[in-house]
User: Fold these one by one.
Assistant:
Number 1:
Amino acid sequence: MSERTVTVLLTGATGYLGTLTLARLLTDPAVEVICLVRAQDDAQAEQRLHDTVGKLWAAPDAAIYERLRAVAFDLTDPPREVPGIGDVTHILHGAASVRFDLELEEARAANTATAQVVLDLARRAPRLEHLLHVSTAYVAGTHRGTFTEDDLDVGQGFRNTYEQTKFEAEQLLRREAADLPLTVARPSIVVGEAQTGWTTTFNVLYPLLRAYSRGLITDIPADPHAVVDVVTGDYVADALAHLLRATEPGATHHLVAGPGVTDVATVRDLAAEAFDLPPAAFIESTDGIPGPILSLLGYLNVHASFEDRKARTVLDPVGIEPVSVTAALRSAIVYGLASRWGRRPVARDAAPILSEGSTA
């Protein structure tokens, strides 16, 4: 590898955000990417990565594979050294389990212990310039009021083991990574891309929207004044690529909706209009709500707002800005219906661009 080549070590490449960020990294011909992929061997890892690239482009340019390498590597059970670690200049750690129903120790293995593995890899990369860890704005947990980019432990509780173990991962980083060029990015709820709604992951708000569209939800135990903070995948991926390559390490950045944030009542009314259904009624009781749905309804009872001053300082000058929550959700609903909520997916570059004012 040339000394002028930027070599990125990427975890989570086969996930939605990892896929979008990989696409952005590969647009620069000076960038080579080593993807750590959970697989039995490198051949299986390469196949999974090829499948991921196929989700981005219906007819991918064969030349990109010359700058792309898959390495079989399970972060929860690291088996060996990473070939080429001596060439790595940047690390983006985006791998995580976003399941909310994991037992605490299982979630810690997926989200906290893996952060330590990545720190160990970073210390074995002599050319390392920047380590970017992808966390979540919901390390704020049950905190009420403003949560800043400098905040972490403010005495909050947590809605689920995902939030708790991402919080614990950040605690670990603050303790253990003082010698490393570390940046932390905290996205809020991530949905499909702004112009098309395209996504490969239908979680958090998507199951609620799908259930409501089918008439399975008529009442919601939610606070109509609670905060709904949603960002599109393209905004987060653009921000991650820029933070990794073009900013100085050392800060925490909230990748959130900012002034475009809204409340639960507005989201309820938007969904009712999109699906041509009566608006769901707000109730207090959770009796009769299925467990899987109940675990998601916590995100309709959030009372934290996320300050993003540091993110705006570095992203505004290059035009990386979030769309409003309502615009993001409109696109998400249109693509959700068109793709049958993920059962009829299309390649990213084949997804139709939504016209202004498109509705479901």
Number 2:
Amino acid sequence: MLNNYKKYQADTASLIELENLETKASVEKDPLSTLKLAIWAYFFLWIFEGALRKWVLPSLATPLLIVRDPIAIYLIVRAMYLNVKFSNAYIVFASIVTLLSLIITITFGHGNLFVAIYGARIMMLHFPLIFIIGAVFTKEDILKMGRVLLAINILMTLIVYLQFSSPQSAFINIGLGGEGSSGFSGAMGYFRPPGTFSFITGLSSFYIMVSVYVFYFWLSGEKISKVLLYASTLALIFSLPLTVSRTAVGGVVLVGLFALVGSATSFKTIIRIVLTIFALFILFTILQKTTTVFNLGTEVFMSRVDTASEQSGGFEESFFSRAIDGFVAPIVRLLEMPFFIGNLGMGTNAGAQMLSGSNGFLIAEDELSRIGGEQGLLLGGAIILLRLGLALSLFLKSIRLPQQDKLLPVIFCGTALFSLTQGQWAQPSMLGYSVMVAGLLLASINKNPKLE
């Protein structure tokens, strides 16, 4: 028996050694594999963080608010250890401005260290991930994530269908922490479903990102399962009215316009564009003729658009004026603010909860007003200019690419530019989304991973 036990130990040790050698060989083959796995973890937690906080671990809803932060720290430390070339003037400038704002907030501002740190983590931890993703991911990594996203889209649409069709008291519509409901007011007595996210803004951004890949795979002819592409496209079209979200529909339309701009002018591509539009029209018609819920969702969505249009002065105002006003009005208010304001973190919902016990907005709901209200004219203005400058730089790099490399980056520009300039980074889901789409845009511009 003793001999058998020793033989078992020897065999076990050999297996462990073999596994270690295989792991080491895999890492040596792709030294960035650990970083890529962490990026995938960040991606999945962006999608399912709300599900954890509502359905799986409701008692940990508050701690899970920062569930991606440890991954962000790991990515930064690991990238530095592997000598990944991601640090640049954007990161250095953002870090300096945020640290100054942190010092002013603790010294002369609201003085709550935890709120200030919570606000500082946006630019100190998550903002650098844009450049890490851009330096690490290859085009195949980007497309692999797209294929996974299209598969998740089918599951997400099923969840949205159940949320839209079920009463707010149903488990599928339960709110954060297992309390209340997660739906938001829509129209005709129906609510805007959040899917697996905490809020409707997360679901809207999800479908906009799905549309990036739907348009790309239709227009590029890139390798993908046709069954998956057709099913996910059908799911996207079916889900948009059920979201009752103008942001989701408007965002998908904008991505489609950028897809047309990024397409080549060759006859072959024009034929592919025509076929894509025709296929989308056929799918829309099939849903309209055969699906009662789709027709109901369309009616509810149009009712909300009509109501918003009446309140804001017309259809164009409802869809387009918000984006313009969301940029111009905060800039005007910023110019009227003091040079320095010590309110870092106060503009986030979590910060408001810690400071006042309220879940409302202590500063402003829109992003640019939040930044200005937290950091003042000088430092807040610097962060706004930084984000505008990065968005402009990525757009110019995208349109200057050779025609054969241009399509994917330009389509990503359809959502990444808005997320960089006006995305509500104080909201965790939107912060995660903005990091992902901007990072994937940068990765689609960069051709090879960068190691020093």
Number 3:
Amino acid sequence: MTGAKIAVLGTGIIGAPVARNLSEDFAVRVWNRTRAKAEELAGNGGIEVADTPAEAVAGAGVVVTVLKDGPTTLEVMREAASGLAAETIWIQLGTVGVTAIEELAEFAGRHGLVFYDAPVMGTKQPAESGNLVILASGPEDARAHVQPVFDVIGSRTVWVASRPGASSRLKLALNSLVLALTHGAAESLALAEALGVDPRLVIDVVAGGPLDSGYFQTKAAAMVNGDYEPAFALANAAKDTRLILEAARAAGVHADLAAGGLRRFERAMEKGHGDKDMAASYLAG
């Protein structure tokens, strides 16, 4: 599949490095609603910038969407529809939730697209280094065509199911854990500071013990150093939390930690921290 044409719709924190990495093995054309973000990729490995979604997907054998939510993804694919050919492979990398993934799969079916539900685990740095974990669901007969794409952008592909939807459900369960760890670190450090203890002592005591992890060290260091360069924006984390709560309610699960975490995110956004990394949960007060 080397040399095949791929369209990447959405060139944000994850989409931009995905496009750059893909351009090493494929011909890549990109589109972004804010064109300036797409223009930053122009010339990287021969990446072309399109003016519209329809122009971006025209002639592409694979379309990759990396957009902020389900409604946005559906809107952009509708704009792209006139440029889509039947049997085009559509790889959907975003976190869109249970309801939206069904709507996207329905759109794919109406347009004769081969649809892969493939949300990713990982943020900016893993995306840049090609070390995302791909949670993939989709038809078995075309996997040989999508696996080379996954191998470029990720270090591991977990095949979840043969029908789209299962991967998006798994992603919500995994994000529930990620967000709980983020808020747990934020509350622990904030409580230490409020009680007159250096929060760095929390990090020091945890280091090397059973509570330690690379994730804890990264987020805790960002919190105590005030480094909120977004690897995953707080506002997007709040969006994902709402998707978790919606899915949990439908499934009859009480997602108490997610509900409390959403309140922290909302307080942080009220203070103007929505564009910062989700580690800004520490600033919720």
